[in-house]
Write a structure and sequence with these properties.
Blueprint lengths: L4 E9 L6 E7 L5 E6 L8 H14 L6 E5 L5 E7 L2 H12 L1
Length: 97
């Protein structure tokens, strides 16, 4: 069973000089992504764990409330973040701007 929450599409940049949200990205097919940079390389799941850590900071939820649903090996990923959908949506808008 999935708790209530939001699905967040992320476009990841690894090995960046600093971690954090860098705005939004549109793929040309109508899908918007949160652009997120992490300092970790994309090896052995280190970047995915770093992304979860950054999402935890952005949304103010525990890392255990964030699940990688798709894109474990790609740049474009989809995460489910459990929590109050209204509060999470507001945090997403703030991070993407």
């Amino acid at each position: 069973m999935i708790d209530t929450g939001v699905m967040v599409h992320v476009r990841a940049t690894t090995k960046a000089p600093r971690a954090g949200a860098t705005g939004s990205y549109n793929d040309g097919q109508g899908r918007a992504y949160l652009s997120l940079s992490v300092t970790e390389p994309a090896t052995k799941g280190r970047a995915n764990q770093a992304i979860i850590k950054e999402l935890s900071k952005i949304f103010g939820v525990a890392q255990s409330r964030i699940v990688l649903c798709a894109g474990a090996r790609g740049r474009q990923k989809r995460f489910h973040i459990a929590g109050n959908p209204s509060a999470l949506a507001a945090a997403l808008v703030h991070a993407a701007s």
